[in-house]
Amino acid sequence: MERVVDSGWYVLGSEGESFEREFAAWLGARHAVGCGSGTDAIELALRALGIGRGDEVITQANTCVPTIAAIARAGATPVLCDVEPAAATMDPESLAAAIGPRTRAVVPVHLYGQCADVDGVLAQAGNLPVVEDCAQAHGARFQGRTAGTMGRIGAFSFYPTKNLGAIGDGGAVVTADAELNERLRLLRQYGQTDRYRHEAEGINSRLDELQAAILRTKLPGLEMANERRRTIAAAYDDALADTPADPLERLPNRSHAFHLYVARVPERERFQRTMAEQGISTLIHYPLPIHRQPAYAQLAEGPVALGTSERLAKEIVSLPIWPDLTAAEVEAVCGAAREAAMQPAT
């Protein structure tokens, strides 16, 4: 932080350029373009692909609202498909049924830190570009490939709670395509080619130097932090074994980054209340699927049924999981969760 302040250069400088190179290398990607947020990353990705007004972009109904907001900000119309019940990731068959004549892109979400069935999504998408929403999946892998490197473009968030978090907003777009890389760099700064010359209608979305410096400092420890998350998740799995609680499945050929630890539990309100009585907070990610949000209720009239997303929203709960949890804290969560899950049904 002192280095950035002393440099006197706070936007689009050496820290950002270095982080872009280092993050791309860490992922195994050719190019990374820093931007202002994960929402901006998806918007920039769609704009770079030439997607806008009159186009439709398919994503899943159980994502966080920023995925939808980014599609709308690009000028496109979001269309929802359903998810697989085992892991809550995009259902390729539901995706196939949702594709229509105006579909121009697909945005699968690597939800909770687990990659979607990328091969299935790519097969159903055909020639449609796939933009991976990797906001919760820093370091997750599918068949050895890192999240963000399998579609045309990957979009990341560095919001402070993410596996790789800044101390404010931040994001990045990654791609193997040199032309898209240049297009993304153009669009993130007002479409500017030279000072005061603008060749495209862009936006203002730049990863500032301070956030880039923080991210550079944290990046070398990311895999170790992810491994700690996996260790905590394994402890929770053991605690919930042989109880009515049902952790979402870890699908084959994947390496889970465990941004969140999510389980389906009966009588969720009672489970959460029992946990709270022991001083342990739980959350729901997410209590309403997109088409049940007042701002997006019109999306309920889409081409496919969204029954799995509806059911999951009523059953899922997230246990605390972050790398700095102590062994004693993990043990306390394990004991409380098992007790809450084992309470007799009312």
Description:
The chain is of the alpha+beta class and 346 residues long. It folds into two domains: 2-220, 3-Layer(aba) Sandwich (Aspartate Aminotransferase, domain 2), CATH 3.40.640.10; 222-342, Alpha-Beta Complex (Aspartate Aminotransferase, domain 1), CATH 3.90.1150.10. It has twelve helices and 15 strands. The protein has helices at 2-7, 14-27, 38-48, 65-73, 92-98, 118-125, 178-187, 209-218, 222-240, 268-277, 307-315, 327-342; strands spanning 31-35, 56-60, 77-81, 103-107, 131-133, 141-142, 145-146, 153-157, 171-175, 192-194, 197-198, 246-247, 254-255, 261-264, 316-319. A hairpin with a 2-residue loop joins strand 10 and strand 11. Helix 3 (38-48) runs parallel beside helix 4 (65-73). The longest helix is centred in the C-terminal third of the chain and has 19 residues, at 222-240. The protein is globular. The chain starts with a helix and ends with a helix. The mean pLDDT is 97.
Task: Looking at this protein, list some descriptive labels.
16% strand, 12 helices, Aspartate Aminotransferase, domain 2, alpha+beta, globular, three-stranded parallel β-sheet, four-stranded mixed β-sheet, 346 residues, 2 domains, Aspartate Aminotransferase, domain 1
Supply the CATH superfamily name of the largest domain. Type I PLP-dependent aspartate aminotransferase-like (Major domain)
> What's the architecture of the largest domain in CATH terms?
3-Layer(aba) Sandwich
Low-confidence stretches: none
Report the radius of gyration as a whole number of Å: 20 Å
Number of strands: 15
Strand content: 15-25%
